[in-house]
Each structure stands twice: as C-alpha cells, then as structure tokens.
Amino acid sequence: MNVSLADKLKELRKSKNISQERLAEYLGVSYQAVSKWENGVTYPDILLLPDIARYYGITVDELLQVEQIDADKYFEECNSKSEALFRDGKRAEIIPLWQEAYKKLPNDIQVRTARLRRIEYRKRG
To answer: What is the pLDDT of residues 32-81, one digit of tens each?
Structure first.
C-alpha cells in the first residue's frame, strides 16, 4: 500500500505523540503549515525534508517512500529476461527492457553497459 506524503507525515507525528505546534516550532514554520501538509493542501519545502526525516529518525527516502531496489538482483532479472527475449526472437523488446532498467538504475554501470551494448547491436544488425 502506497501512503500519501500527507498521510505519512500525520502518521509519523502521531506515532511520536507530538502536536503540530511542537513540530512546527522545531522546523521553524507555523502550525498551519504543518496542518496543510498533513491535509494534502501543500507540501513541505524541499529544504525541510532532511530536518523532518531527522526529527523522526528516518531517511528522506523513507519519508518520501522511495522504492528500494536491490540493484544486483534487478540487473540479473533484466539480464535473464533479455536472454529469453533474444532466444525467442523478440529482439525488438530487448532495448525497451534495458531502457526501463536504466530509468530505475541510471547510475548502475552494469545496466548502462548492457543498454549501450543492445543499442550498438541494433545499429550493427
């Protein structure tokens, strides 16, 4: 279940049993601002995210509920799919597979290399 940022902020505050005023004071904002965040009317300023996360003892990724990806496992899954597509003669589906992997893991050297190899293969063949 994907919880909205507003719900996550409210859940975290209530789990610590603190008031909107207390959180607002810590962050240097008004309690009305905290209320607007929790009701989904506005979002906290991006510069406040590290302070909010630190206050609750979590990371910004956890606060924003960013999907955690096991890069090695994901690469192996893509590589297996890519090999199966190649064997099945579905070569046109290989590049989109690696492009999607690149979107999820843009800094992973294995993904970048695999993507470039597939593009080069297509240019040659």
So the answer is: 999 999 999 999 999 999 999 999 999 998 898 877 677 888 889 999 99
Amino acid identity of residue 92, one-letter, is: A
Residue 52's contacts (CB-CB under 8 Å, 6 or more residues apart) are 9, 27, 44, 63
Report residue 29 as tokens: 């904002």
Rounded Cα distance between 3 and 41, Å, is: 16
Tokens of residue 6, six digits = 């507003």
Q: Are 6 and 39 in contact (CB under 8 A)?
A: yes
Among 112, 14, 4, residue whose Cα is nearest residue 56: 14
